[in-house]
Amino acid sequence: MGVLELSRWQFAITTVYHFFFVPLTLGLTIAIALMETKYVRTGDEDYKKMAKFWGHLFLINFAIGVATGIVQEFQFGMNWSEYSRFMGDIFGAPLAIEALLAFYMESTFIGVWVFGWKRLSPKAHAATAWLVAAGSNLSAIWILSANSFMQQPVGYELANGRAQMVDFWAIIGNPHLWLQFPHIFTAGMVQAGFFMMGVSAWHFLHKTKNITPFKKSIRFGSTYALIGIVLVILIGHFQAQHLLETQPMKLAAGEALWETENPAGESLFAIIDQDNHKNTVDLKIPGFLSFLAYDSFSGEVKGINDLQKEYEQKYGAGKNYIPNVWLSYWSFRIMVFVGFLMLLLAFIAFIKSRKEEFNCKPLGLKTFIWSIGLPILSVAFGWIFTEAGRQPWLVFGLFRTEDGVSKAVSVGEAWTTLIGFTILYAILIVFTIQLWVKYAKHDMELEPETSTSEA
Amino acid sequence: MDLNILWFILITVLFIGYFFLEGFDYGVGMLLPFMGKDDAERRAIINTIGPHWDGNEVWLLTAGGASFAAFPNFYATLFSGFYLPLFLMLLGLIVRAVAFEYRSKEDSLKWRYNWDWMIFLGSFIPAFLWGVAVSNLLIGVPIDSTMTYTGGFFNLLNPYALVGGITFVVLFLFHGSLFLSLKLGGEMRDKAKESANKYWIPAVVMAVIFVVYTYFAVPSFSASAVALISALIAAVALILAGIYAKGGKMGLGFIMSSLTVVFVTILAFATLYPNLMFSSTSPANNLTIYNASASPYTLTVMSYVALILVPFVLVYQAWSYIIFKKRITKDSEMTY
Fold it and tell me: Contact B320/A420, CB-based, under 8 Å?
């Protein structure tokens, strides 16, 4: 492999890994702030215990999320220096604002939140929880505005061999951003909700003595997850319709739709032959893709082959504009399938948690425990679809991936960092899970920070 | 003053903030396994920076982000050129961040002490490598006409850079000791004082070697009045810091060591100005605040953003230090 391939692998591994932790931070910070607010308003001690308990699990997540986030900030310069030169004018600004507006807020107030239980009034302390939540979620807006530009460039001109910003408001008003951010924001709710459901289910399964705060947690978590997943799916639907207008190739690849169809069928299972531009097996629901695209059972959806011809006219002949169809198709399908599975699970948990007693068979409880991994899976494949489906572009229509890689980096250096980060990340996930399992099993009656509150 | 100069100054300020704050953070991290005799002492040491280290580190992220936004070519050339040192630094910072959060979450002393060594490494490596990086920026590195670094890894480990690396390490050990002497109570406070006295002489010696070496190896240092004056102030402050520390005036000592770190940073950037990177291949290939910069529009937008946000950041970070101003002893309530 060359520096290009190695850098792509490194970016994929480090980014997907970093994103294991991001949605939980987004969703759980708000959940904790809501719990603490409820405690301040009603004086219900259970909600204080909940805020502390989930706060503790959150901190384990936060540490590794922050640590792996540092790599994200620097690897554009390290491995993608030519991209950084081309895009710095536009990409650097949101990144700097993310740090100035969001990272300072989140990191300063998380310190105050953790250390300040006895130094601040309950109201002021709850306010710090909200500032952490605001900081985290604001940071998502800024980094996604940078990613949205790569999907749908707006507010720029090409000058001096690079993309230059001409309209800052267009960049943060990018329609792509205002679909992508809500999708991620609500995915954070889902992730946090399933996390609370799963951990609480463990306590039901093991008949923890003081179960009331876990009952409240599973009620909270399932409501949160259900609202989240309904919105995720709904917004996802609008995103697909938006793709049809802005990145039809990505949508066609996600559907493995080689030829233009009208009405277009929705593929359920396909065996894809990328070399010969066809599917050897393709099970379809007739007309359903047109329905998803236009809310009507007729309407043309362009196929990959026609789009290739169109792009050759637009961006230059003799080049390939088709992403990896197999990867796009299956990552899209896994994301959607897991999404609907989560809708079902969140709905069941929601109904059960409305009752006086949370009645659930051990198999069901175990299902909820293992479901903690579902949002992670769905989000990871969502990103793989988003990024792989945009290929061969790094910035859609403007800049190809192969042009973005660093010239100063040697193959040996690229191997070193790829292997180094991968090994370190693999070790860290073991410790993270070890601590998660340990602290998730704590009873809320025991102060969760027993091991840390005494000297 | 044009915006390119303004952003050069702002990035200087961000690095000043980073080296000043993380300077004592890294010092504390390096001292941890040596000064802390048992777990209780180590926890006290970690808790002095407990609420702050994460916020302090954001100064680095902001400096990186601001470089990307204001001088994209600088960001691209520097980080792709100093590839492996930066990689090692990232490994250090990752391990350090995780170590702070995880070390007290298991009761086993072995677990805790192993993480403490990770905190040591995660503090030592960035401290040393920033010294190496700054020295290389000053002495110049091979950069071709496409702004690409052509030197490889070992070119970065020249004698001057190694002197710079050691200088940063001892300076931060001294700075961190003074910080601990302000934050710790009881007998641990005396240990911190001893440590400050111990690292003062090495810090002075290394600073002198570094400045003299710079004088002879970096022509633009002696050509810049600001850099020369900064060197003078840094030297006087460093000497005063040691004298105050010996006399038990730790607060004044810390202010002086802070001034040293601040003026060493100013020295470096003043030497560079109006360049961001010297090319040892040809001065025509230097990265300057003009040929490396973003468009005037982006600089304008970012200036408004910085003008609005930076005051808030300064106020609430200062506030967070005020809330936790109480000294920490072995009997204090610990969070980490």
Answer: no
